[in-house]
Amino acid sequence: MPDFASQSDETVFVAFRDGNTDAYRELIERFHDDLLRFLTRLVGDRAAAEDIFQETFLQVHLSASTFDATRRFRPWLFTIGANKGRDFLRKKKRQRTVELSRPLKMSEGGTAFIDLLEVDVPPPDAAMDLSERDEMVQRALARLGEPLREVLLLAYFQRMSYAHIAEDLGIPLGTVKSRMHSAVAAFARSWQMVSKESTKRGDD
């Protein structure tokens, strides 16, 4: 069995496309945690995310011949996952709460902003329980429309560039920038509303 550990995603994918079933398993294992977390955040349902994960890799198998291996595999994979997630949300016909395991990051000016990978700034209220703060973030994200939430997650969780998002979602670069601007502003407003609601409940 070839040692795929040191090989690039694209090299492993080509091996899979050439008929190596071990390479397919390697891709599934390699992206399992990141893709599943992304899908769970996107659709707000762990069980549904697991099903979508399986559907995503089935689509990878079915569409293997269409992928240009000179491009990066990861954005292609997550775009397929995002499309499957959108299909799920359409079928549900309602917004779902995004499950977020990371707390909120605050800018120097105090504006609410999310960093889905790491937190290097203390919470706005040191006395606030992490689970309470995460629940507030979930509620704030749930107020965002699907297009804004999706772009925000792709940009900050996957660290995808605007150009990659535009290319892989098939939308103009200007649209990506506009949605990101709107998403950040909308999240900041939503966070302020959620914070006021929580404060009001605490005072009651």
Major sheet: arrangement of strands: 1-2
* Share of residues in strands: under 5%
Number of helices: 8
> Radius of gyration, rounded?
19 Å
User: How many β-strands, per DSSP?
Assistant: 2
- Topology as a string of helices (H) and strands (E): HHHHEEHHHH
CATH class of the largest domain: Mainly Alpha
Can you tell me the residue ranges where pLDDT is under 50 for at least 5 consecutive residues?
94-127
- The end-to-end distance, rounded to whole angstroms, is 64 Å
Q: What is the fold named in CATH at topology level of the largest domain? A: Arc Repressor Mutant, subunit A
In CATH, the architecture of the largest domain is Orthogonal Bundle
CATH superfamily of the largest domain: Winged helix-like DNA-binding domain superfamily/Winged helix DNA-binding domain
How would you sum up this structure, described in words?
Helix content is 65%, strand content 2%. The protein is mainly α and 204 residues long. It folds into two domains: 9-92, RNA polymerase sigma factor, region 2, helix turn helix motif (Rna Polymerase Sigma Factor, Chain: A); 105-203, Orthogonal Bundle (Arc Repressor Mutant, subunit A). Strands 1-2 form a two-stranded antiparallel sheet. The longest helix is centred in the C-terminal third of the chain and has 31 residues, at 173-203. It starts with 8 loop residues before the first helix and ends with a helix. Mean pLDDT is 76; it is low at 94-127.
